[in-house]
């Protein structure tokens, strides 16, 4: 199923559009099914109702583990690099990983988990995180992984939304020189989570934690009480595999739902092709398993293909900005898949951290999460790839399950900051505001997809209407991505960024409404408006305009108060980079905040603010501009 020439890509693409069912039916033959499907695809985008491989039975862990045992049992499945380079790295072969997953699956059962139950995972980037994820899949429980940077309140909201029965966590996590007290955060979260019956705690940083009698158990104790034989649960192709929460333009994150069969096929197929993975190679994705990139391209995609997936706890700059390069040298990494924000941050340290490092193993480079600017692209190409490693700029989303528009390594000619061409099976279309298709090349519009693909989301947990409204109602019969996009003269796609109220901060999706809600929780805040602005390292920074009561002679409100509130309500990842206290916000007569104006001010624009005639009080704009000059 690996594409090896551009001609083959063109042929496969054509076939995938002309006869999608035959195309995906053939791709799916490369996976292991307990029972075959009777229909490859049935769909409509109105409801939406999408079913892939209907009637088929499988368990994704048999594809990620069992099927490799006979031939590749002793091959490394996961290599783990700890936060502190002085500690030993750990390697799990496929045999070992299979054994650990089965054992932990039995621990889950012992603690009352069964098929269909939702399980929240809040863990550091350790092999046990991958084990926990796979153990859920093994028994047919639905995992909901929450990134370690989210606050107790965010966790509680997510746990309650999907009524999780179990939580898997650790005492803490390392993040460079810092420690994150995961269990403490979970304890705070669980005060408001009546559905959680058990909490399994892994020892990692060895910080003291409190264990609640009857609820909390230690991972290390539990595994002693079970054996390592665990028959995989037989799942329907359309049974739920996981929920992953993501931000949208409203205040409340949605639980994006992926199902077993289609997701597996899509993650595996795209992994194998986009990275042109070759047997025996070491593949290093620097994402966190708390995000979709980690789900699809640290765990499920690579393991389904019998690959060696390198997993790393820590940050790119600790203990030095050579950390990635040292890992590449040490483990002879062949593929590095990372984010533009990490590249820009490492660029800022100059040449010194690269001196004497051996990059000769690098064959393929990848970028994900946000548009990659040309400067970062060239630096990545020259300094890390030495001009010899193709860069795959992979555009996709939590909702798409896997990579959608991207070069295929060694096959597609690349172009700096272009995601290039759609993968087989993906039918992008650009539309104007009215949903009219923009045809031809050298054009820009809103990016939609007009035909289903196996990895697409099926619903948003507990609220199908929301899924419909968010993705399938903006334009009739199309999946709307929320991204703006241009198609150049060669038909290459370049993603220009979100067209909705979603920010992309260091590759993390954050809704402006979420941040505003958090800021407004502070007793002293009357109202706020949040917009993004260009940031050298993060891609986008968060700019908050906050109405300060002090200006009306009330209690003193400080920027620190606001930062603390946001950290408590959402998590440190959503902290504004700039806060501007104002006495009013630019509103229309109907009371809508004119973000367009605030965005311009945040970008440093002071004169060309566009039409302000519909504003209720145009004078407030002048005041904001003056204040903005001072910060
Ligand atoms: C995989 C992931 C999705 C949003 C997406 C877009 C942006 C992702 C990109 C990119 C330009 C790329 N995005 N990859 N923009 N070029 N190669 O990041 O999922 O966290 O859901 O974010 O990220 O705006 O809509 P997710």
UniProtKB/TrEMBL annotation:
SUPFAM superfamilies: Acetyl-CoA synthetase-like (SSF56801). PROSITE patterns: AMP_BINDING. GO terms for biological process: acetyl-CoA biosynthetic process from acetate. InterPro entries: Ac_CoA_lig, ACAS_N, AMP-bd_C, AMP-bd_C_sf, AMP-binding_CS, AMP-dep_synth/lig_dom, ANL_N_sf. Its EC number is 6.2.1.1. Residues 9-64 form the Acetyl-coenzyme A synthetase N-terminal domain. Residues 66-452 form the AMP-dependent synthetase/ligase domain. GO terms for molecular function: acetate-CoA ligase activity; AMP binding; ATP binding. It holds the Pfam family ACAS_N. Keywords: Acetylation, ATP-binding, Ligase, Nucleotide-binding. Transmembrane segments: none annotated. Belongs to the ATP-dependent AMP-binding enzyme family. This is Acetate--CoA ligase. It comes from Pedobacter frigidisoli. The gene is acs.
